[in-house]
Structure formats: structure tokens, C-alpha cells
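Hey, resending since the last one bounced:
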Amino acid sequence: MKRLIGAVSAVLMAFAVSPAQAADKVVLMLNWYVYGEHAPFYYGKTKGIYAAEGIDLEIQEGRGSAATTQAVAAKTADFGYVDVPTMMRAAIKGAPVVATGVLLQTSPMSAMGFVDKNIKKPEDIKGKTVAITPADSMTQIWPLFLKKTGLKESDFKTVAGDGQTKLNAVINGQADLLLGYVMDQSMKIKDATGKDVYPIKFADYGINMVSSGIIANTDYVKANADLVRRFMSATTKAVEAAEKEPKASAQSILDANPKGGKIDTLTQGFELTIPLYRTAETKGKRPFQVTDQNMTDSVNLMVEYGGLDAKAKENPKAFYTNDYLPKSGS
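The C-alpha cells again:
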């Protein structure tokens, strides 16, 4: 009996001292260098939301949505946070990627200039100079904005350059406006100059298309369905928590990356992002719950104006899935 008790005690001791099951290591690659839009991921990690789902999250900065999509397709990153239309272009050409959640369901694209320029509506762009980056997503949709607002290319001048050149053109007065995202380039300009920027939002003129979302390799999703569900559950909760605490969420970026920006503009940039999470159809729903109609409309716009192959219209659902999102209220 003593030997039996001793054996049972040894087993119980072994269970008591054995380490907890190791968390799953997950790499999330962002679309670009960190800015306010990325706050929920850092906040979710800081608050232990990912850890609670058994996930050890590593966040890596990106070098553009196309590069991040390539990394996910090649399985060098488990998940990517990218411009979904950019992902569509890769997927239609055979890249094994799919969106497991579309976060920005309203476009952040805009034409923006300093407030003191008093350029607040499309008509005000006439006679001005607009800085663009050839072939980027905004420049591809720009002709649609012109069509929707009755502007002609002869109504204004353009200067072209890469992302930094475009910023410098506005900062240095070589251009009156640039094409950019309301929560990204506007904050970079404010950081550099201290001056506020006014965005003329494409979405306000009938250009309704999705923007950023989470993507994964299609084979990875099939092989790791439970992990994908846990990751999307954690990310949904992280977004919901961050929405309630914008400044604390922005601070979590700086806690992880002290050179990641300035607290005021990171906070403001994130606050500008929050309204883009939902459309009229998804108002009141949890983040990422994109509608089939929104995605279909986005595919159609990309085919007509964004260089997406026309065969994409045959099956818009091939580009995304809501199957791994948490249910409402869960």
C-alpha cells in the first residue's frame, strides 16, 4: 500500500511540475512600417488576448502589401495584414492566399492637402498639383474618383514619385495634394510639419470597396483550422478592446517599438481608422464580418479600374472566407 501511495504521489508530482502546454508560435507580417492602423495587434499582444488563445504572437513590419502577400504565399509568415485588393491580384494569378477576415470595409483612400490650402471638395482640386505614385492602389482607383466627381485630368497637374517623394512634394510645396490613406500619409505629414491635413475621401463619393484585412496561405488554413480560428478570435477581441482605448492602444505600439512614431499622431491615426471597420450593412456587427455584396462590389471595381483579371468576377468568394471568425457575442 505504501508503494502504491508513493507511486500515485510521484505521478501527481509529475503533473504538478510539468510545464503548461506551449503556445503556438504565430508570425503576423504587417503591410508596412508600423503606424496607427496597426494598434490593435500590439494592444492584443500587450493585454494577453493572443496568449489567452494559446498564441505566441510575433509582429513583423512589412514593406508593402504585395511583398507581405508574397511572404504569406511562400509560408515565411503565417498571417499577413494587407490591402485585400492587392491580395486579389496575386490570388487570381495563382498565389495560394485567402482573406480570413476583412477589417477595413470602407476605403481609406483620399486626396489630401494642408488645411490652410482650403481644398475640401473635388471642385477645389481644379488648377492644383496632385502628387501620385504610379501603379499603386490609389492611383489605379483615381480615374474612378475623377469620373464620379466630374473632374478631368486636364483640370489639374500631377507630379509622380515613390511614397516618400510624394510626401516630400506636399511638405515642400511642390504639390498641393497627394493621394493617400486618411490614417497614414496624413499623420506622416503632420509628424513632419505639425500642420493638419484635410482629406477628400473617395468613399464619400460613391467609391465603396474594401481595404485592409488578414490573409493566410490556403494550405496553412486547411492544415491549421483550429489555430486560424483562435487567431481570428483573438484578433477580433483585440480590435474590440482597442476601439475602446485608442490612446492605450497607440501606446502599445511605442512600448514595443519606441521609434514607431509619436503618441498623438499614432492615436489620431488609429481613431481615423476605426470608422472604416464597418459599413452601413455591418454596423453593430463584430469586426471582420464583411458582407458578400461588399466583396462582390469591390471585385467588380477592381476589374474595371484596378487591373484585376476579369475572371475574378466569376467567383468573388474565392478571395475570402468568414468561416473562421468568432460567432456574434462569443
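The longest helix spans residues 225-244.

Sorry for the duplicate.
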